[in-house]
Fold:
Amino acid sequence: MTAARSYPTIPPVIESPRSAPNRPRRTRTNTELYAWLFMRVSGIVLVVLVLGHLFIMNILDGGVQRINWGFVAGRWASPFWQVWDLLMLWLAMIHGTNGLRVIINDYTRRDGTRLTLKAVLYTATTITIALGTLVIFTFNPDMGS
Amino acid sequence: MTAVAERPAETRAEAPIETRPVRVKIRRYVPELNPEPYWQTFEVHALPTDRVLNLLLDIKGYQDGSLTFRRSCAHGVCGSDAMRINGVNRLACKVLVKDMPDEITIEPIKGLPLEKDLVVDMEPFFEAYRSIKPFLITYGQPPTREHIQSQADRERFDDTTKCILCAACTTSCPVYWTDGQYFGPAAIVNAHRFIFDSRDEGTEERLEILNDREGVWRCRTTFNCTEACPRGIEVTQAIAEVKKALLYRRV
Amino acid sequence: MPAVKRHSYDVIIVGAGGAGMRAALESSARVRTAVLTKLYPTRSHTGAAQGGMCAALANVEEDNWEWHTFDTVKGGDYLVDQDAAEVMCKEAIDAVLDLEKMGLPFNRTPEGRIDQRRFGGHTRNHGEAAVRRSCFAADRTGHMILQTLYQNCVKQGVEFFNEFYVLDLVLSEGRAAGAVAYELASGDIHVFEAKAVVLATGGFGKVFKTTSNAHTLTGDGMGIVWRKGLPLEDMEFFQFHPTGLAGLGILLSEAARGEGGILRNAVGERFMERYAPTIKDLAPRDIVARSMANEVREGRGAGPNKDYVLLDLTHLPREQIDAKLPDITEFARTYLGVEPYTEPVPVYPTAHYAMGGVPTNIRAEVLRNNTDVVPGLYAAGEVACVSVHGSNRLGTNSLLDINVFGRRGGIAAAEYAGVATKAPVPPGVESQVVATVQRLLESTGGDRVAEIRSALQNTMDMNAQVYRTEESLKQAEEDILALKARYVNVAVTDKGKRFNSDLLEAIELGFLLDLAEVLVIGARARNESRGGHFREDHPNRDDTNFMRHTMAYRNEDGSITLDYKPVVQTRYQPMERKY
Structure:
């Protein structure tokens, strides 16, 4: 079976002229345009942010061995690295979420499934972004010492 | 020797040119007799000049008259006989049998309701086409003679005027397979033909329609449509140009 | 028994090619109109036309419609009704401009106006030299016309019944009253009541084996009218287009020669110089086709079997080929594996266009005899015989014909429907169609549609093609009669209702057999050679006896009576036809 979906059942009589499917009312917003544009722009920014991040963490100055509580504390003492990491968190999360949203739109056939999947996706995204943001801004170097 | 298919089987056998046996495996669907689609294989002797459509005509003429498919001009300009041939969308009248392996698999195009054998309901496809306003929109007084259009302006949309509405592109699109409400490549190509026509004044309206959730932004640039187009239209390119026009609000 | 459904409109148009849709644009703007087509509108064979549409726009050089009229009359070997040709050539200019305003993307001159090129038989000042008159969109002018007309039908919200095959015409009190159609998708019968009916069903090229025509061109409209006892005019005149791809019949536009292409025989000679010294390769189609066939008969054909000649484009710049002839060069590459940049393309004449058809006057009204019309019945395009093409149509004049007379037919039908009362439709008008369908479905015969059709096409190619003789035509007639006898027991293997194309082909074959017979009988009676009809046993034009249209009538018993109709001559007296 190669067809991507089962063929619809055929009504006993085809009314003439045959009717067309209902297309949803047009939205008249630029949401999809902005989403599309965001994916391109955030993708480019993320290349810089993520590659920079990986370089700093894994290669520079002896690489991953030097990373410890103190290293993180030192970095996040500077607002520059706070903004870097915050940007990376938000862009990566929204980029990934939008990607999954597109996949859900493309591949789910029933409205119910689509709604459920998107609810799970958006909840997970919101929690992750909120937690991450909280950590970046409320990180206390003295915590636990 | 001619490649006209309607000839008695005996002359085909006696033909001085060497024929080649080909197995044609066709996905049949006859809802009046059997609610499920099934595969059926026919053996045909193909001439070197035969196209896949000739094989189908030969099967219908001399083996099984109930085999159903659409065909008209038989040389790739009417767009009746788009079908999936060995897994890719093609016009049966444009595929030469000599370029094919000994077994040819033929299925109906995907994503449109199946009616019988290789015949699908084209109405959803044409509905998408009609909804992008595929006609010249002008306001104000028409010119007394013709509109003036430079050769460069005419060239700008030449590629997309070639479309024959065969649906090969739209039914090769993975997004369209799962979401029949997506306008699909063919509708966007025909919108492109007017958006980039210097005489047209409906660009805004058309761009607005394609800015929709089911519009150009659903295109995933898989290039299936460009690959499938029997007229050689750069379909994905055309879609990208419409996206760009939307982005900059300028054509 | 199939279900029967009823509809009521002011005007119904049968066929959605160029003529049908042009008529629909006019008619639907005025009265309630439906278009019935056995295909989808964009599949119609207008889309296969390539070269252009002539009109004396004079955009690139001096020209006027009177010269165009003269060329049309001379091209048709003086069998053209000159009043109709005048109307067509005069209205051609507006027809082209209308299409441009509807959105047709014509090629442009450097100044941005509609570009024009040379075409066979179109000359300046009554034959002095070839003139640039053909307006075109690359080599897909027909495609663009079909698309543009469909686009405007969408704009105007024209009501289409796609894949509805009209099988019978309803005539009541001597007037048109509607049509009976078979819906392919469901197998239902539909009765369309209407005040006026426009036939635009195209030609019947499928009577021949080697043809540029689509599989769907089976002369249904002519066949229906014929079976109603109405006449058919000039059916013996069939055009053979010189440049079909050898062996396949796929059309390569005359535009190839308009752009400078040259026909050569096996020894490389430009043989048209001998047959038409002035305009050479751009002589009218009948002359070129016969010249080609003659080269082959005299042993100067090219190829292993010496059975074709060569169309040479190799001296043209590649940019010109790409810009002006992209589609036809692709046909040569796809279907024959020939590269037109570097190799000449094998070509041979292919059956192309029926000059004859349902007789009409210049208002597109169908004639029941030489003078009287059938009120409410109209015809336009290849199905009709106005006669603007006479015995040989000039290239591009068919696209003109459909636009000019399609428009006229649409307006006339709508105006008639606006004032006429509906003719009563008697109950049971569909019974004959229902019976035909039932009979075919229940047929137990063993003769396959494909076998009979193939035999018909073979005998027509063999005996009634470019060269005809009394003997060959007699043979064709005998063959057709034998095939008609076999057709009574034709087999239909598909017994279903849904998309029964097997049934459809059987019905179409019936029309083909009828029309082939009319063609052959008309050709046998015309003991002269004129335009597309060439009799080897009567090689000269005979104006004394045959300067007249053939009118064929079907008798009750199925036999055929031939009558004649005078040719309308206004400005031009017949002269010898030299190019």
Summary: The two ends of chain B are 51 Å apart (CA to CA). Chain B touches chain A at residues 29, 31, 37, 87, 107, 110-111, 113-115, 121, 123-124, 126-128, 131, 174-175, 177-181, 208-209, 211-215, 217-218, 220, 243, 246-247 (CB under 8 Å). Residues 235-248 of chain B form the longest helix (14 residues). The CA atoms of residues 86 and 100 of chain B lie 9 Å apart.
